[in-house]
Amino acid sequence: MCNAVRVQLEFVCILQVEVSLNGMAPLLVQLLKQPNALTALNLLQIVRCMYEQHPRPKEFIVKFSIAEQLRRLAAASSQAVLVRKQAQNLLDAFQLNVVF
User: Is residue 91 a contact partner of residue 75, using CB atoms and an 8 Å limit?
Assistant: First the structure.
């Protein structure tokens, strides 16, 4: 199911914005706490889609504490290498939108 949602979000920009503004982000953050590697990778790709199209990316990062979860995934030795790399790539992208 994650893969189907991710594919649809990748191709429909308006859907990305609506989903990120209307409640899916907190659910994704919760799901990222206990994922297996494949689920985590799909969830991270969904987060990337939502972040890239969000009208206020700084708010998106801070409001849902996404960076904290990504730091945890990037540092976790139990996660697959691809998951850690994807989480680190998102954290690097977030550095452009840091709120001080």
Answer: no
> Crossing angle of helices 37-53/2-11, nearest 10°?
20
- Apex CA 84: angle with CA 77 and CA 38, to 5°? 100
Q: Over the stretch 40-74, which tens digit does the pLDDT of each residue have? A: 888 888 888 888 877 888 888 888 888 888 898 88
Phi, then psi, of 6 in degrees rounded to 5: -60, -45
Q: What is the pTM of this model?
A: 0.76
Using H for helix, E for strand and C for coil, what is the string for the chain? CHHHHHHHHHHCHHHHHHHHHCCHHHHHHHHCCCCCHHHHHHHHHHHHHHHHHCCCHHHHHHHCCHHHHHHHHHHCCCCCHHHHHHHHHHHHHHHHHCCC
Domain with 84 in it: 37-95
Higher pLDDT, 13 or 94: 94
> Could you tell me if residue 23 is inside a domain?
no
